[in-house]
Amino acid sequence: xxxxxxxxxxxxxxxxxxxxxxxxxxISKGDISYEPIEYREGNYESSSPIKQQGIVKxxxxxxxxxxxxxxxxxxxxxSAQTATVKQEDVKIELLGDDHKSVLTSWxxxxxxxxxxxLSDFSATGNELAVESVDIACEAIIxx
Length: 143
Description:
Elements: E1 12-16, E2 20-22, E3 26-29, E4 32-39, E5 50-58, E6 61-66, H1 72-82, E7 88-95, E8 102-117, E9 130-136, E10 139-142
Antiparallel strand pairs: 1-2, 1-7, 3-6, 4-5, 6-9, 7-8, 8-9, 8-10
């Protein structure tokens, strides 16, 4: 039987709808969960209830990126102050070692930015400025 190795997680590409391809140093969280529904009839033989999947919930996804002069994510987040924020599909593609072949992908459908965390600054530090944006979505679809 051939050995099947898991995918490496450090080569990926993110496309944020009309904003295009963007670079992120880290993508975290993101989950899919179902609220269980418990049901039991009076004549059911077991004393425990039947459990079924209920409403699906999609956890927020956090994207971390090095601070640059680009304000695209900031402007997208703040567009909600002056108008309705535009929902965008965010596509995350896990890439092979050649940085071109797509091993698998996830699409965050109808995503909106809900939080921007600014970088910490220190006059004695030696790190890059990194911000993060939290994205909420209506569905996570694996390609």
